[in-house]
Structure formats: structure tokens, C-alpha cells
Amino acid sequence: MSFQVPGGMIITGILMAFYKSPLEIFLGQWLNQSFNALVNFTNRSGDKPLPSSVILTAYFTATSFATATSIGMNKALGSRAPPLVGRFVPFMAVAVANMVNIPCMRQQELKEGVVIYDEEGRKLGNSPTAARTAITKVTISRIVIAAPGMLLTPVLME
Fold first, then answer.
1. What is the 3-state secondary structure (H, E, C) of 89-135?
2. CA-wise closest residue to 96 among 5, 15, 156, 6
3. In contact, 100 and 61? CB cutoff 8 Å
4. Are 63 and 94 in contact (CB under 8 A)?
């Protein structure tokens, strides 16, 4: 986790600078999702091993959604929108990718729940509700963490 902020800042800079051509978009989103998959993998509940198929599915799905969002939004906005609006496209792609990647990476927790303990450390059982709550909060927090740099930078640069 200690590298999440500096690593995210570097990747945010890349996403903000290279967002127009499909190749730039793909490479930026691939880099971002590679980093996010690593962060999400290392921060999952470690009770049970995660199958490689789940990791790869989450990774490729998030990268595909992020790339499709960026390319689609760039085409939809085209020359119709002011340049400032186009600079927000990388943030939209990052938000969509987080909404896909985190639940996919942590789907086992959604199905089986997370372990719940009492104040004395005794295991009480598994809770899918606690898993949903935690994953929702993580997803929202990752989007909120990305927001200042990805939303304020274009405004300040304009």
C-alpha cells in the first residue's frame, strides 16, 4: 500500500497526458489496470487462495472496460465538447475500471463472505453483507482518491 499513492500519481500523469489515440489509451489503461490488479490482489482477504482464472478475468475485464470507456467517450465527445471535457475522460475510465476490477478481484468474498470476529478475536462466521459493504467502500474510496488529481489538474491547466 505504501506505493499506491506515488505509483498512482505517476500513472495518473501518464493517463492525463496520453489520452487521445487508441494506442495511447490502451497502453495507459493497461499500465493502470496492471497496477490496480496488483494492489487489489495484495489487499484482498487472505483466508483462501485466489485462482489465477479469477485474477486474469478481473484484470482483462477491467482493462477492456477502461479502454472501451476511454475510446468510446473520446469518439462520443469528439470535437463537439470543449477540450477541458475531453481531459475528464481518463477519470471516467478509471472510475469504470474500479467498479469492475475490485468486485471481480474480490468475488470470492462476495460469494462466501468475509470472516467476522468478536472483540476477543474469536471467529463468529462469514458475512457476505460485510463483504459487500467493504467492497463498496473500497471501490468508492479508490474513485475518490483518483478524483482530485484527475479532475482538478485539467481545470488548473486550462
1. HHHHHHHHHHHHHHHHHCHHHHHHCEEEECCCCCEEEEEHHHHHHHH
2. 15
3. yes
4. no
Take residue 53 and report the three cell numbers written for it. Answer: 482464472
pLDDT in tens, 3-14: 777 888 899 889
Cβ neighbours of residue 100 closer than 8 Å, sequence gap 6 or more:
58, 61, 62, 65
Contact call for residues 94 and 66 (beta carbons, < 8 A): yes
CA 34 to CA 29: how far, in whole Å?
A: 8
Put simply, whether the predicted model's pTM sits higher than 0.70 gets the answer: yes
Beta partners for residue 123, in sequence order: 117
Bridge partners of 154? Answer: none
Distance CA 87, CA 84 (A): 5
